[in-house]
Amino acid sequence: MKKNFLICGAIFAALTLSGCQSVGNESLRKETESSVAQKIVQGKTTKSEVRAMFGSPTKTTFTDGGLEVWNYDFSNVSADAISYVPIVNLFGASASGKKKELVVMYDDKNIVRRYAMSEADVTQKTGLFNN
């Protein structure tokens, strides 16, 4: 009886720990293309205003012309049902969810020149039969 209790506890712990994963900038979690469009105005919103709304970027790059580009990313995935089946999940488990990306380009006066917000469905597969 004690052995069964320990096995059930171990399975419950494994399922609880492997259920959901979020990676990236949490400020994008509830944002949509339309909500970002209400917050960022091309030719008007400043770099400091964007930082106040979304925090520090995940990545900063520069164009060939020297313009600064900020990237924000956020992914939220949850394990699919097959991932919870013992033994079967070793051969083919998966997780699915959403990925959001916000890219902001600034002009030489640190004003938003252009931006793009995108949201896509993502799937992550693991196991012997998903490679």
From TrEMBL:
What Gene3D superfamilies is this protein classified in?
3.30.1450.10
Keywords carried by this UniProt record = Signal
Highest taxon in the source lineage: Bacteria
Q: Does the keyword Signal apply?
A: yes
InterPro entries noted in UniProt:
BamE-like
PROSITE patterns listed in its UniProt record: PROKAR_LIPOPROTEIN
**Protein name in the entry:** Outer membrane protein assembly factor BamE
